[in-house]
Design goal:
The chain has 13 helices and 13 strands. The protein has helices at residues 49-53, 88-94, 113-126, 139-151, 165-173, 185-197, 211-227, 244-259, 278-285, 311-320, 330-344, 354-364, 386-395, and strands at 8-12, 19-20, 37-40, 84-86, 98-103, 131-135, 154-160, 177-181, 203-204, 235-239, 267-273, 324-328, 373-378. The protein starts with 7 loop residues before the first strand and ends with a helix. Bound molecules: pyridoxal-5'-phosphate and zinc ion.
């Protein structure tokens, strides 16, 4: 087993608090089977805001002292260091004070999934994995294929038939093994589960199985805070499927607060499609748990997650941050993505367009307004799904 850095002091269960020894091959709580999260001893960290300020923001690995793996051991193709783009015109249109888009489309495979897969493959390498595997809606599979190629390990990707052409094609291009499963994400998940049960030597890099995807994604918040000169925005609106990025960023908020690097904390808002809105439904019902959506149907593949395993943790983050959850329909989501492309020159993934339509709804409901500084997380680039964006134009006769 690879060496564990001094700062990586254990793994903790976010549900029941159980703590276990730090390692790269323990993933679930022995008491309640919840996915564990790495615990860092922030007292041994020498990194300072000043050190960061005098280095280029070129990779998420510049925060390695706040990660459980050293940059020297990273499987990296240049992930992170994405721009935070000011969008004053969009802020005016939407009716908020300041609006920023954290543009994750600048990552090597075009989405924020690279942050999670970079850390997950780095951890898999620490346990000498020869094969990693996952089911995904598409983007995580694409990222795993790229990072697996970089790490020199075999990658098995299970995607639903409705996954995008580019995602499927790029899994092949990176030399990974692709299984296309009829149906939707839960069907791909079932095929993956059957395959991994039959191959105990495969290491799972799936959402629910590795603590290191969430951990990698917390660097999105580190960058947002740094790009705002160590200030937290008032609100972060996030396109929520499994909630990996949301939970990761919430952990990032907690750690920067502990370090005293930020003074305030953001309200988190989950944005979903009305075609699949388990988090919004539970939030509105005041429920502590998610009820699975029986017939999910949205063109936004990344957020078509009918039964997010981490649902109750997501709800906790939304409620404890005084945030919220809102669903808008696919037509409004696609129109929002198009309007950002037209007015701001930013091509965001259709799925990420939901942050814009959600913000409009939040303003209408009086939850956000002209006093708020808001960050929308554009989790991916529209270039991977130009066909969907173009056909929305066609549906308007353009
Ligand atoms: C572009 C895009 N945005 C958002 C999501 C949802 O991410 P999370 O699991 O962090 O909620 C995905 C997941 O596939 C995605 O591909
Ligand atoms: Zn537990």
């Amino acid at each position: 087993m690879g060496a564990v850095p001094e700062r990586f002091v254990g793994l903790r269960c976010p549900a029941c608090g159980e703590a276990v020894e730090a390692s790269f091959d323990t993933s679930h709580c022995p008491a309640c089977a919840t996915l564990l999260e790495p615990q860092l001893d922030l007292d041994v960290i020498e990194l300072t805001r000043h050190t960061l300020e005098i280095t280029a923001m070129d990779s998420m690995w510049r925060y390695d002292e706040l990660l459980p793996i050293d940059a020297a051991d990273a499987i990296s193709v240049g992930e992170g260091g994405t721009p935070l783009l000011a969008c004053p015109e969009l802020a005016r249109d939407l009716g908020v004070g300041d609006l920023w888009i954290k543009f994750e489309g600048s990552n090597p495979t075009g989405t924020f999934k690279d942050r999670g897969q970079s850390l997950a493959l780095s951890a898999a390498t620490k346990v000498q994995a020869e094969t990693v595997a996952l089911a995904s809606a598409g983007n995580a599979g694409h990222a795993a294929a790229a990072y697996g190629a970089r790490a020199g390990v075999d990658v098995r990707v299970f995607l639903p038939a409705r996954s995008g052409f580019t995602q499927k094609a790029m899994v092949n291009v990176h030399g990974a093994d692709l299984t296309v499963v009829q149906g939707r994400l839960p069907d791909a998940g079932a095929a993956f589960r059957e395959a991994i049960d039959a191959h105990p030597d495969w290491v799972s890099v799936a959402t629910d199985d590795t603590p290191f995807r969430r951990e990698g994604k917390k660097t999105m918040f580190f960058e947002i805070a740094e790009q705002l000169d160590w200030r937290s925005p008032d609100a972060i609106v996030y396109p929520t499927g499994g909630g990996v990025g949301l939970l990761g960023m919430a952990k990032g908020v907690h750690e920067l607060s502990e370090l005293g690097w930020i003074e305030s904390t953001p309200r988190f808002f989950a944005a979903q499609s009305t075609g699949c809105s388990p988090v919004v439904d539970a939030f509105e019902a005041g429920s502590a748990d998610i009820h699975p959506v029986e017939q999910p149907d949205t063109i936004c593949g990344g957020i078509e997650v009918p039964d997010p395993t981490a649902g109750s943790l997501i709800l906790d983050v939304l409620r404890s941050s005084d945030g919220g959850a809102v669903a808008t329909d696919d037509d409004a989501i696609l129109d929002a993505a198009l309007s950002v492309a037209e007015t701001e020159g930013i091509a965001m993934a259709p799925t990420a367009g939901v942050t814009v339509s959600a913000t409009a709804s939040l303003v209408e409901a009086g939850q956000l307004g002209v006093d708020d500084e808001v960050v929308l997380v554009a989790t991916g680039t529209g270039l991977k799904e130009a066909d969907i964006l173009r056909s929305q134009l066609m549906s308007k006769g353009v």
